[in-house]
Amino acid sequence: MAAKQGMPTLALRVLEEALGMGLTAARDTAEAVAAEGAYYLEQVTITEASEDDYEYEEIPDDNFSIPEGEEDLAKAIQMVQEQATDTQILEQKTVLPSKQPVPEVIEDFLCNFLIKMGMTRTLDCFQSEWYELIQKGLTELRDLGNVPDVYTQNMLLENENKNLKKDLKHYKQAADKAREDLLKTQKERDFHRMHHKRIVQEKNKLINDLKGLKLHYASYEPTIRVLHEKHHTLLKQKMLTSLERDRAVGQISGLQATLKNMEIGHNYHASEIRVVPTREKENALEGPTQKGLREAREKNKSNTKIKDNTKDSEFPTDMQPNPNLCLYKENICPAKVDYKLNNIFRLHELPVSCIVMHPCKDILISCGEDRLWKVVGLPKGNVLLTGFGHTDWLSDCCFHPSGNKLATSSGDTTVKLWDLSKGNCILTFEGHNHAVWSCTWHSCGDFVASSSLDTTSKIWDVNSERCRCTLYGHVDSVNSIEFFPGSNTLLTGSADKTLSVWDARTGNCEQSLYGHMHSVNDATFTPRGHMIASCDACGVIKLWDFRKLLPIVSIDVGPSPGNEVNFDSSGRVLAQASGNGVIHLLDLKSGQIHKLMGHESEAHTVVFSHDGEYLFSGGSDGTVRTWS
């Protein structure tokens, strides 16, 4: 019986030894013991299970086994003294009431505790001594009782406390973020509320201005009505005057014919005298207007006969030399980009659509949406000649290589040729279904090419006065067209975002260039012809190698659209007219972009003088501005 009572004492000693050594190694052992109070252990009776009926003699556990490898006498004595001291402390302070069993095993609890505290040497000592007792059969786990759950509860509470602190920190961060979002939302609300009030004020102001304009316009209506009546009266007077003039011209023509016959010495017989008055009476009954129509029909018939006998022109078979190459070799001065506004010429009542320089003289021609083209002398800007004949706005114009003729394209779907010495129209080409955007002369002077909104381009024969070929391939409006200098090659730019190279002799598309993301508004060759420049509706300029038909560089000066591009005579500076009124100058050698600010509204066209000293630009305000 004494042996059986000693077994629990041995297990408790081992447990308390491990607990005591672990608590000694901890940093706050004294504080934890004071806070937690005494340990409560349950006293149990350990019975040894045996398979046979042999009665073993129980030996009292009076001696403490010394672990292997530590048989030093001094260490053993010290260990025994510590063991006795711990036993006295436990006997004095420990009370063993009954408690609920703890599911955790003593061995696992002790091992986990020692591992958590980092007490590896104590863990090794405990395991060696513990398993030695188990091998000897001196103890079993199920007979040793339960471990106090204070440590387990403390660890659970500590973990729960840590988790709650983390949750608290997370909730604080979320609350701070929500507070910031609330402040931001309040500021945005105040801003939008203020903006709404300002919009309402502007709306009320615009409504008041609109009412004032309506009243102002109503005051002009009587005056406009009177002016319309006067206009109709003047038109009637003009018509009567025209009829009287035609009658007088007919009488003068008859008198001149009579005088001519009298000078030649014709003798009129009596029978003839009877016939002539009859003819004159018929002409008198016919009237000057009918007579003019009859003469126009006869003239048209004679012109038709002449056209039928006229043969088609032949395209040049040999490549003609480019005269701009000589100019490029001679021009070795640095490129000029520092232009300043010099003068303003007010030439049109509506926007200027095109400006071209005469190939030999210091004059330019401007075309406008007021259906007029004007020859302007430089540098004074005096109008030398005004041409009219189109029934809708003019879109483009181009000089004959000799400079004595002009081709114009218009929104009335026609292309007209003009004699600059007289200022009258000598030929009209009709065939496009919609507005014509651009026109260009062949270097031989026998062909004119045009591009239209109807997605086609046409090549016109000046001598036979007919369309020689229609170019099909673009799927949207063809906005620009230009002949390659001295060749039969055509370049077109379209709203389908592509450039196309054509053979004018066959009408076939030789190559298409892709790269623009928006409608191509204009495309042109350099004076040397080795490079192409194009601009689109988003302000992007692209340079292409014409020999390889590959893109070189892309420059974005948008978002305002680029309306027209042109090179100077040296081919080293490229100018672009933009929709925001800015003229962009690109130095191809340095890559720098310079801006010319002077237009009050949209800039439609830009062109250099032959020597590069002047730059001319036309805008939507009907003015041509000179830069030097």
UniProtKB/TrEMBL annotation:
<feature type="repeat" description="WD">
    <location>
        <begin position="596"/>
        <end position="628"/>
    </location>
</feature>
<dbReference type="GO" id="GO:0007288">
    <property type="term" value="P:sperm axoneme assembly"/>
</dbReference>
<keyword id="KW-0175">Coiled coil</keyword>
<keyword id="KW-0853">WD repeat</keyword>
<feature type="repeat" description="WD">
    <location>
        <begin position="513"/>
        <end position="547"/>
    </location>
</feature>
<feature type="repeat" description="WD">
    <location>
        <begin position="429"/>
        <end position="470"/>
    </location>
</feature>
<keyword id="KW-0969">Cilium</keyword>
<keyword id="KW-0677">Repeat</keyword>
<protein>
    <recommendedName>
        <fullName>Sperm-associated antigen 16 protein</fullName>
    </recommendedName>
</protein>
<keyword id="KW-0206">Cytoskeleton</keyword>
<feature type="repeat" description="WD">
    <location>
        <begin position="387"/>
        <end position="428"/>
    </location>
</feature>
<dbReference type="GO" id="GO:1990716">
    <property type="term" value="C:axonemal central apparatus"/>
</dbReference>
<dbReference type="GO" id="GO:0005576">
    <property type="term" value="C:extracellular region"/>
</dbReference>
<keyword id="KW-0970">Cilium biogenesis/degradation</keyword>
<keyword id="KW-0966">Cell projection</keyword>
<dbReference type="InterPro" id="IPR020472">
    <property type="entry name" value="WD40_PAC1"/>
</dbReference>
<keyword id="KW-0963">Cytoplasm</keyword>
<feature type="coiled-coil region">
    <location>
        <begin position="154"/>
        <end position="188"/>
    </location>
</feature>
<dbReference type="InterPro" id="IPR036322">
    <property type="entry name" value="WD40_repeat_dom_sf"/>
</dbReference>
<keyword id="KW-0282">Flagellum</keyword>
<keyword id="KW-0597">Phosphoprotein</keyword>
<dbReference type="InterPro" id="IPR001680">
    <property type="entry name" value="WD40_rpt"/>
</dbReference>
<comment type="subunit">
    <text>Interacts with SPAG6 and STK36.</text>
</comment>
<dbReference type="GO" id="GO:0090660">
    <property type="term" value="P:cerebrospinal fluid circulation"/>
</dbReference>
<feature type="compositionally biased region" description="Basic and acidic residues">
    <location>
        <begin position="292"/>
        <end position="314"/>
    </location>
</feature>
<dbReference type="Pfam" id="PF00400">
    <property type="entry name" value="WD40"/>
</dbReference>
<dbReference type="InterPro" id="IPR019775">
    <property type="entry name" value="WD40_repeat_CS"/>
</dbReference>
<dbReference type="InterPro" id="IPR050995">
    <property type="entry name" value="WD-F-box_domain-protein"/>
</dbReference>
<feature type="repeat" description="WD">
    <location>
        <begin position="471"/>
        <end position="512"/>
    </location>
</feature>
<dbReference type="GO" id="GO:0120197">
    <property type="term" value="P:mucociliary clearance"/>
</dbReference>
<dbReference type="GO" id="GO:0036126">
    <property type="term" value="C:sperm flagellum"/>
</dbReference>
<feature type="region of interest" description="Disordered">
    <location>
        <begin position="279"/>
        <end position="315"/>
    </location>
</feature>
<comment type="function">
    <text>Necessary for sperm flagellar function. Plays a role in motile ciliogenesis. May help to recruit STK36 to the cilium or apical surface of the cell to initiate subsequent steps of construction of the central pair apparatus of motile cilia.</text>
</comment>
<dbReference type="InterPro" id="IPR015943">
    <property type="entry name" value="WD40/YVTN_repeat-like_dom_sf"/>
</dbReference>
